[in-house]
Amino acid sequence: MGHRMLWFTKKIEFCNIVEADLWGDIVGLQSTWRLGIRQIQVEIDNNGAVKLILEKSSSGKSLTILQHMDAMLACEWNVQLKHILRDSNRVADVLVEHVWKLPVGLHEFTQHPAEIVRKIRSGDPELG
């Protein structure tokens, strides 16, 4: 089985950090499902978001996005959630900088965004 990395950003107008992370996770899962990929490891750098996702009951979840997450995780596929340290996810910071230049909505990339590739090739220490 091969490895594939999905690049996307979603600019939303108002939400807190946990909600933004959850939106990113949901959009990533939806995009992955749409591509027909049925085995995925999701790396999440927000421990609070991971804890909310892993709560046993969705009935007590007040955020609608968590109910959508539960529905996606209940689909017939193998999804592993993995908490990673924030320092391991510096590429996300570059994507956040990039999204401010885009209109509100979802933006998927078929290739690595050039700005990130430049920073990686230059050995930018920010990208860990």
UniProtKB/TrEMBL annotation:
Highest taxon, organism lineage: Eukaryota
Record-linked InterPro entries: RNase_H-like, RNase_H-like_dom_plant, RNaseH_domain, RNaseH_sf
Domain RNase H type-1: 2-98
Gene Ontology molecular-function annotations: nucleic acid binding; RNA-DNA hybrid ribonuclease activity
PANTHER family membership: OS05G0353850 PROTEIN, PUTATIVE-RELATED
Record protein name field: RNase H type-1 domain-containing protein
